[in-house]
Amino acid sequence: MAMAVSYTIGDLLARWTNETPKQPSPSEPVLLVEPDYFDTVRMAGIAIVKALYGRGKTYGFGYNLYHTARIKRDQEVIYINAREVRDRLTSIGSTEDQGKTLKLHNLLLLGDALDIVRLICIGYYLPQIVNTNEGIYLATNTDLLKKVCPNISNYLSKGLPIGLREFLRDIAKASPRRLVIIIDEFEQLTSTTGGRPNVEYVYNLIDQLLISLRPGVLDEQPGKFGIVLLIQELYYPTDRMRKLVAESSYPAIGRMFSVSDDGSIPVHYSIEAYMKYIENAIRGLVVNNYINQKIADLALQAFRDSNIRRLLREYLPNMPAFIAFNILQQLLITALSLHNVTPDVIKSEFENFMKDYMAYTIY
User: Fold this and answer.
1) Please, are residues 212 and 174 in contact by the beta-carbon 8 Å criterion?
2) How far is Cα 262 from Cα 231, in angstroms, rounded to an integer?
3) Strands (DSSP E) along the chain, which ranges?
4) Which of 71, 177, 218, 271 is the most buried (most CB within 10 A)?
5) How many CB atoms lie within 10 A of CB 214?
């Protein structure tokens, strides 16, 4: 009996953690928790999140910003995965009639900051990729695209910085509430054919964007616009960005939220975030009638034990987020499959897991 319950719980937790966040309006729980600086990033004029693969950029900031806005209804959010959308455009562009005349010469990415306009408007010309369960292009309000994207040729013809400046101003102005644009895998805009991203070109794109933002939408629509770039750390131009930030070369720097001296924000989950994940997971299982309240209460009591919190605090923050959340899922399976779970059981299980992750015990 315990094995069947364990399999069900494991399947649910994996789905709620990895799959439902991709969905535009999921009917199941979405197990997302906020990394450090989440609320500040949400309100920044510009924020650049830099981290290695698996550290939680996409889920912690990308999908989380979208779902927070969807639930609170206090912002409009457009989330775009640059690599996935670029590849989808290439794939669709190689086929014949898609049922709608596409101005592909306007949509093809060229490796300059006007690609931000092209990326956003791909959602207008290729609505079939928007708000699907793949999660490559999510928008809380697709009507915004209809208000600006039919004029894409006009924006592109003006070049940089004017074309991008006017597009961002107009889409923010058209939005009924604060608009946040999130571009995931931003570094992929430097590789229009799918090759290795170029660090120097990443800097050029950021440079062009900063020039376009202010003067521009950050002044003309104060508080109503923000853009968040999610960038793989290996391709972040750390040295040049550190110099640019130190010199405060552009007015837009004054509206940038950053933690590091290179203008970036790291991805880090606190013990409170991990505990919230545990609590939300258990609550979701109770509400959806997969476990009873008695088992839930015993598990919560065990996880809240001071020794368990100390273990989680000591080890989890050093790990990539996908490993840390996977460990929590396995601990939850164990705790919720027993009718008398204790902190000692969780401690023993955790120590067994850590034998597979010895590299994270030396920090």
Assistant:
1) no
2) 13
3) 46-51, 75-81, 137-139, 178-184, 225-232, 256-257, 264-265
4) 218
5) 20
Provide the token pair at 92. 């669709």
Q: What 3-state DSSP class applies to 126?
A: coil
The model carries a pTM of: 0.92
> What does the pLDDT look like over 78-112, one tens digit per residue?
999 999 999 888 777 544 444 444 456 568 888 99
For 167-203, give one letter per residue: b (16+ CB within 10 A) or e: bbbbbbebbeebbbbbbbbbbbbbbeeeeebbbebbb
**What's the first-to-final CA gap in the chain, in angstroms?**
40
What distance in Å separates the CA atoms of residue 88 and residue 302, rounded to the nearest whole number? Answer: 46
Distance CA 17, CA 321 (A): 12
Burial class from Cβ neighbours inside 10 Å (0-12, 13-18, 19+) for residue 207 reads: middle
Per the structure block, which two tokens stand in for 180?
């946040």
Widest distance between CA atoms in the chain = 68
Cis peptide before 215 (omega within 30 of 0): yes
Residues 6+ apart with CB under 8 A from 156: 106, 114, 117, 118, 163
Q: Which pLDDT score is estimated for 105?
A: 59
Q: Any alpha helices (H) in 141-253, and if so which ranges? A: 143-148, 152-157, 162-174, 199-213, 217-220, 238-247
Any residues with CB less than 8 A from the CB of 275 and at least 6 apart, and which?
Answer: 303, 304, 309, 312
